[in-house]
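G., before I forget:
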Amino acid sequence: MVKVQIKNLRKCFGDLEVLKDIDFTVDDGEVVCVIGPSGSGKSTLLRCINALEVPTGGTIIVDDHEITDKHQDINKLRENIGMVFQQFNLFPHMTVKKNVMMAPVDRKKMTKEEADKKAVALLETVGLASKSDEYPDNLSGGQQQRVAIARALAMNPDVMLFDEPTSALDPEMVGDVLAVMKRLAEQGMTMIVVTHEMGFAREVADRVVFMDGGVIVEQGRPADIFGNPQNERTIAFLNSVL
Amino acid sequence: MFEHVISVVTQALPKLCTGMALTIQMTLFGVIIAFIIGLIACLARISRFKIFSAVSGAYIYIIRGTPMLVQAFFLYFGVAQLLPFKLSKNLVGIITISLNAGAYMAEIFRGSIQSISKGQMEAARSLGLPYGTAMRKVILPQALRRSIPSLTNQVIISLKDVSILSAIGVAEIFQAGKIITARNMESTIIWTTVGAIYLIVVFLLTKLANYLERRTSYGQSTNKKSS
């Protein structure tokens, strides 16, 4: 079953065309890693999916709802699309638990008690239950990112978007975050992950998408993309990063 | 000599203190209303609706571009006197302070809102929060805290600007000082006393602001202070 369907997606910033006519689908429960050089448009593609960027053209359908339709209640649609950012973006004026509880309570998805229970459970699964009452500034980058994942999961999303979730982390923190993501993938979450972690892509992804210059150059099973890339741009990129 | 100073000061002090009480009252009411005006004007200024942004921009431009003395005269002689009902000097004074400080506060708020990283709004919106909720629960609490030092500055400026309202006859502390010196000709003693009273009030205000800033801090800074 198709979860995310993108057709003829275009995005321009002024004269600069960042995404050129992208067609892209993600199935239910599929884990897709998007790789490519910086400036290739991969983050923009991700940000179009929850309308943080408004596409210049084309359609995006998530769960049978058209994100690009101006008459849709975008807030409602975003509740089902979790997003994790490179810079974590935790709310520094709220405790860790409040960060996780805030949206479900405000959007009336849960009562305070339910959200509290859910927050504790989620923090448990990312290994940070003991930090519930700390403020984000007191946590390491890796811990903050795991809280950010818990915060996104608190809304019970169908799809999770990860925008270079480990790029701002010290190397020794990367493993913990990737472990949480891997567990999420094994539980059947639909995930789109923009990443430079080739090891993660190779091990966890069902499909790897290589983007360059605003187009999808090549995609396929991780073993094929990493083991036997066809396009010369893919080959050049992989040679430079691996 | 010393006894003379003491006697002049003690004679003047009750009137000066009454004057300062009025100054503080007008400042207090003025900046509270200014806070609300400033917040609304700021949100209008950054609104994507051009009409709100333009109206707010014009308001800020006019207030910042004219002296408060002119604003006070305009409101008192140019507007209040033409109304069918009577507005007291003090009320016009408070309105002047409110409108004046409101414009500056709008810019203070705008600055601190824009200093909050864009990622905060994006994170809030990506969770499904509408713009208004994200603003109220995520951006403003952080921005308001960040604006405390500049707001304190503005409150101090407004406190001192109340003296300008003596020109429309408001009996605040500067006006009181003028009346006393006209009678006893003791300019040096009286103006030193007036200055000292201002300094004391501003000192207390600064302490209050520091306390507020500490109280509203979060994360690392709280822990360090409490340990």
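Chain A touches chain B through 29 residues (CB under 8 Å). The first helix of chain A runs from residue 42 to 49.

More on Monday.
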